[in-house]
Amino acid sequence: MSKSARARDVTAALEFRRATKQFDPSIELPDTELDGIVAAAGLAPSSYNLQHWQVVAIREPARRVELAAAAFGQQSVADASCVLVLAADPDAWQLARERWDHLPAGKRDRLAANIEAFYAGAPQLARDEAMRSVSMFAMALMLVAAERGWQSCPYIGFDPAAVRAIAGFPPTWVVVLLVAIGHSAAAPTPRPPRRRVDGFLHRERWAPPDSAP
Ligand SMILES: Cc1cc2nc3c(=O)[nH]c(=O)nc-3n(C[C@H](O)[C@H](O)[C@H](O)COP(=O)(O)O)c2cc1C
Description:
Blueprint: H1 10-16, H2 31-41, E1 53-58, H3 61-70, H4 75-79, E2 82-88, H5 96-99, H6 105-119, H7 123-147, E3 151-155, H8 160-167, E4 174-182
Antiparallel strand pairs: 1-2, 2-4, 3-4
The structure holds flavin mononucleotide.
């Protein structure tokens, strides 16, 4: 790749993406789109490339209705073309050897030993890492969907036990987010304003607003 190579359209995808509240239920998400979006999102970074994400795609209308009930009745969950249930595997560090199997055996074993030493006996760290990595995957999903002309919405408003039962995830995995994908059924409302950059960007060291020079 040349030094000047750059991805040009990420800002456009960020501007296009909205947390869409009304989806057109008549639109289906084709298999090729689902696979393409999920594969591209899989390029997201993850701690030690452990790729802690696990995904169940729910597209059948009756299953989306069931999921909407577990999401406190949010109608957009029922109306989206597909809802991805994202889980994080806090024990993904135990798969370090598998993830790095492309390396020569000696190198792979040394790296896997480092990874295991880092996470073994540190369940809070392992969970935090899994949540960080799955959050990166979720954002990548929404940006790739936007690039392909799909709107999306992330959700934390759901009953984790009910969603876990619908998705069929094992008990040790954390249900992180739902991400709905579909076509908007209405013109977007004005985007809720973002803070000014100088309200949260600090140079070299954080300072409370009133002490800024
Ligand atoms: C972690 C997270 C959880 C969210 N949960 C919900 C949700 O349960 N239901 C919903 O309608 N929107 C949800 N949202 C969307 C936010 O309301 C939305 O991103 C925010 O208001 C900014 O609007 P915008 O994304 O259109 O710019 C969630 C967003 C995030 C990042």
